[in-house]
């Protein structure tokens, strides 16, 4: 089981101080001493601080912001003032965030984090001049303040046009930092904001400032690809190919761009230049398999096969996986059986069961998985995975009863195993048995109350499949408090806002989520909200992007059916 999140340091210190103050009061012989201890700021701050933590655990961010601000005032503590500001910003309680920020400043707060909070509030209030001033100050900070400025523009702006205008103002100001990494980051932001004109301008400026730098050329290729100028992007990548042989990181970056262009064979080819290891071989095999380039994959398989005389577990495991790609199932079984030992032995046994299932020898496959499940010498993770694989194979067979029986046996063997509970919850949700999915996710939260994955999954399920929107919001808020920049959680938050009838607010969050991660489900949600708001041409563009990413996505299918797009 993963460790639970520790109690925040501020809370620990205040509880410790409060306990000391209370003990002193009880030991003191006079009423005056007890009264003085009870009036100490640390004691006065304890109640609102505990209330704030309980509110966080309940997903009530508005209440948490209020209580943190009260605790910060009572204790006159700079760390509490900063936390009150951050929680209020997360809750989008800008009035209370402004109060907490003022207190933070009065208590001596300074530096990039305070400037970033000021900039975020100014952006949200539409105070462009003030926002620009704070962002320029961040760029001038020697402590990598540009990173905070980047975060403000990526997450604080209400819409891409607002963020783009501020970014353009920063470029015009001449205050951009001189380091390449900062320029690349802001150029990438312009692309994520889907502002091709601004992105092109930034890339042109980066090329001018840093001529001959491979990372700049990669950004140029990415910008051209985003602008649907694929042929030009390929020309840029081809110009880099000659420099890739001696630089593994550059080869990987070029391959990523070819992959994004859909040129999987070209991606595999670039990875094949220069020295090879098992990772590069595995990546090449995966790319060729996705490209369905059987001839190239056969050639790579032969190359590896010739060097597999010695009993190298990692190489034989890889050869077994490649034989699977090539549908040479009998050869795959031989390679897996030949894995001599080491940690690779266990995935080889799991893969062999999968191959047997592919061959239509389901009974043998399940027998092998049952053997692994009962093998006391196997690590617990391998035995657990054997239950998960067995359930997955039963799902493929459409054997719902056998699938659920497997999960039950797995949980009997590994009580409260989070991975099995989570997999079963997802299976219940796919079957539209929301009550049972909820029960498993709540069981995870009893075992691990801070499980961000379970909080987000349960919150999203309630928002998407029930009308218990307020409860969903509280669960998602708990996840947001733990990981405020997680794209999946931001998507869940945007979706529950939409379900609550707050479509304009939802749009802001969903745009931000899609900028962070190009995902079919996020694109489907964004398209549906835009459609409902009457912005149907833009909605169709997001639906199309989602379709390109994953045409079988269930959220996309539901959105298209609902909107008729």
From TrEMBL:
Key words of the record: Repeat, Signal, TPR repeat
Listed InterPro entries: CellSynth/LPSAsmb/PSIAsmb (IPR051012), TAT_signal (IPR006311), TPR-like_helical_dom_sf (IPR011990), TPR_2 (IPR013105), TPR_rpt (IPR019734)
Signal sequence interval, chain numbering: 1-27
Domain of life per record: Bacteria
Gene3D superfamilies: Tetratricopeptide repeat domain
Chain positions of TPR repeats: 520-553
Cited PANTHER family: TETRATRICOPEPTIDE TPR_2 REPEAT PROTEIN, TPR REPEAT-CONTAINING PROTEIN PA4667
Protein's name in the database: Membrane protein
């Amino acid at each position: 089981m993963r460790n639970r999140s520790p109690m925040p340091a501020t809370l620990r210190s205040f509880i410790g101080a409060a306990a000391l103050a209370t003990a002193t009061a009880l030991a003191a012989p006079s009423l005056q001493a007890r009264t003085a201890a009870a009036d100490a700021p640390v004691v006065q701050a304890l109640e609102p601080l505990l209330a704030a933590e309980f509110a966080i655990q309940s997903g009530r961010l508005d209440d948490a912001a209020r209580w943190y601000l009260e605790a910060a005032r009572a204790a006159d503590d700079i760390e509490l003032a900063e936390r009150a500001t951050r929680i209020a910003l997360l809750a989008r309680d800008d009035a209370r965030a402004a109060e907490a920020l003022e207190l933070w400043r009065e208590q001596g707060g300074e530096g990039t984090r305070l400037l970033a909070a000021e900039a975020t509030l100014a952006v949200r209030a539409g105070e462009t001049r003030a926002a620009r001033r704070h962002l320029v100050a961040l760029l001038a900070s020697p402590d990598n303040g540009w990173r905070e400025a980047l975060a403000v523009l990526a997450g604080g702006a209400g819409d891409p046009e607002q963020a783009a205008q501020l970014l353009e103002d920063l470029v015009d100001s001449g205050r951009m930092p001189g380091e390449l990494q900062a320029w690349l980051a802001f150029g990438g932001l312009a692309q994520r904001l889907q502002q091709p004109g601004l992105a092109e301008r930034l890339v042109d400026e980066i090329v001018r400032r840093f001529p001959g730098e491979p990372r700049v050329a990669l950004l140029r290729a990415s910008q051209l690809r985003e602008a649907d100028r694929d042929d030009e992007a390929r020309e840029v990548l081809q110009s880099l190919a000659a420099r890739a042989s001696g630089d593994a990181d550059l080869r990987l970056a070029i391959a990523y761009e070819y992959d994004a262009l859909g040129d999987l064979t070209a991606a595999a080819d670039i990875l094949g230049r220069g020295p090879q290891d098992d990772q590069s071989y595995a990546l090449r095999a995966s790319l060729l398999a996705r490209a369905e380039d059987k001839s190239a994959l056969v050639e790579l398989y032969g190359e590896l096969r010739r060097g597999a005389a010695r009993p190298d577990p990692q190489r034989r495991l890889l050869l077994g996986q490649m034989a699977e790609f090539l549908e040479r199932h009998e050869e795959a079984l031989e390679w897996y059986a030949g894995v001599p030992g080491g940690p690779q032995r266990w995935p080889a046994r799991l893969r062999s069961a999968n191959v047997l299932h592919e061959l239509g020898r389901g009974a043998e496959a399940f027998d092998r998985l049952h053997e692994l499940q009962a093998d006391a010498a196997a690590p617990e993770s391998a035995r657990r995975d054997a239950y998960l694989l067995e359930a997955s194979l039963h799902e493929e067979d459409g054997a719902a009863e056998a699938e659920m029986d497997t999960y039950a046996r797995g949980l009997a063997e590994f009580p409260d195993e989070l991975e099995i509970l989570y997999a079963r919850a997802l299976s219940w949700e796919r079957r539209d048995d929301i009550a049972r999915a909820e029960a498993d996710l709540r069981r995870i939260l009893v075992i691990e109350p801070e499980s961000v994955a379970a909080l987000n999954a349960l919150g999203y399920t309630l928002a998407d499949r029930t009308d218990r929107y307020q409860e969903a919001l509280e669960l998602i808020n708990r996840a947001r408090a733990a990981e405020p920049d997680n794209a999946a959680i931001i998507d869940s938050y945007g979706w529950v806002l939409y379900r609550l009838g707050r479509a304009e607010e939802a749009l802001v969050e969903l745009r931000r989520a899609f900028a962070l991660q190009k995902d079919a489900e996020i694109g489907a949600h964004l398209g549906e909200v835009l459609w409902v708001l009457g912005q149907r041409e833009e909605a169709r563009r997001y639906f199309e992007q989602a379709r390109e990413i994953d045409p079988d996505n269930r959220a996309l299918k539901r959105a298209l059916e609902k909107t008729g797009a």
